[in-house]
Amino acid sequence: MVGEEIAVSMLVPSYSQEQLPESFVGLKSQQGCIGEMSDVEDETFNPVVSRSSQTCRIDLLEEIIEDAKDNKKILFQTMQSIMNLMKEVELQEAAAEQAKEEAARGGMDILVKVEELKQMLPHAKEANDMHAGEVYGEKAILVTEVKELENRLLSLSDERDKSLAILDEMRQTLEARQSAAQELMKAAEQEKLEKEESARNALAEQEAIMVKMVEESKILRQEAEENSKLREFLMDRGQIIDSLQGEISVICEDIRLLKQKFDDRIPLSKSISSSQTSCILASSGSSLKSRSSDLGSGQWETAKTPEKRSPTPSVDGQSPKSRSSDERSKAD
Fold first, then answer.
1. Measured between alpha carbons, how far is 323 from 315 in angstroms, rounded to an integer?
2. DSSP letter string over 108-166?
3. Coil/strand/helix, residue 315
4. CA dihedral (200, 202, 207, 209) positive or negative
């Protein structure tokens, strides 16, 4: 037991009596009890008392042993925590020292790079000046070569223009001869084609007009239906607005009366305008909800109606605008 106390004092030298675990204090008190009991046994010794005291000492010894085991575990855990704390502190101190060293030499590294760049700048400028002289000399040579190439291209352009003029004269002569031959072949067919084309144009115009009239009739009928639905919608909305206007007028009148009573310092309990206003608001809210639900279904049906319209049919795969433009071009 004395060895354990020495180990405790070596591992945790800075703990006071209050900071040590309670088991350590109990252990010391039990050791004091054992010493006192041994003194009593020496003074008053007899067989019966010695047996009872021996049993008591054995039980107490067992308890002390168990307490010692617990104290050993506590000591081991305390030692482990202290060792972990020491490792953590050492790591943090090393990191702080390294950060301090890096901060001290961080600016120096940048200044060294600045000096290196300052030393490199004169050499780079000298190299650029030499290279600029070479580039400008080569540029002058290239300008001279460009002028020579331009002169050659101009001479080639003159020769090309002369050749094109000769070819154009030959083409005009050949086209005149070809036109004369084609006019002889087309003269007989032109009259027949013109008459057939005129008849087809007249038929196409009449068919297009008929189709357009049918489509306009359908569109007008659909627009009339939409106007009727819109009229009903506006009438219903007008009724809702009239109702809201009347209710708002009543509320404004209640507010005016309430302000008058407020100015006259009449208690609110003697006024029934607030209850009337709440009843009006509740009835108006329910009526508006019912009307809005009915109108929502009507608007959904109205929104579906334009989707059912079929696109304007065309004659011979052409729209009315394209047919009208063709007719105007033919008339011209």
1. 8
2. HHHHHHHHHHHHHHHHHHHHHHHHHHHHHHHHHHHHHHHHHHHHHHHHHHHHHHHHHHH
3. strand
4. positive
Q: Which amino acid is at 27?
A: L
Which among 128, 130, 118, 21 is positioned nearest to 68, based on CA atoms? Answer: 21
Cα separations (Å) of 294 from 43, 266, 282, 301? 113, 44, 19, 11
Distance CA 90, CA 137 (A): 69
| Residues whose CB falls within 8 Å of the CB of residue 87, separated by 6 or more in sequence, listed in order | none
**Which segments of the chain have a pLDDT < 70?**
1-54, 106-107, 268-332
- Integer CA distances (angstroms), 230 to 218, 223, 236, 243, 299, in order: 18, 10, 10, 20, 9
219's tokens: 């569109």
Q: What's the sign of the alpha-carbon dihedral 253, 255, 257, 263?
A: negative
Please give the model's pTM, rounded to 2 decimal places.
Answer: 0.27
With a CB cutoff of 8 Å and minimum separation 6, the contacts of 61 are 34
Helix (H/G/I), strand (E/B), else coil: 45: coil
pLDDT digits over 57-101, tens only? 778 888 888 888 899 899 899 989 999 998 999 999 998 888 887
Report the distance separating Cα 263 and Cα 294, nearest Å. Answer: 44
Alpha helix ranges (H) inside the chain: 2-11, 22-43, 47-263, 273-307, 320-331
Pair of tokens at residue 149: 């190439």
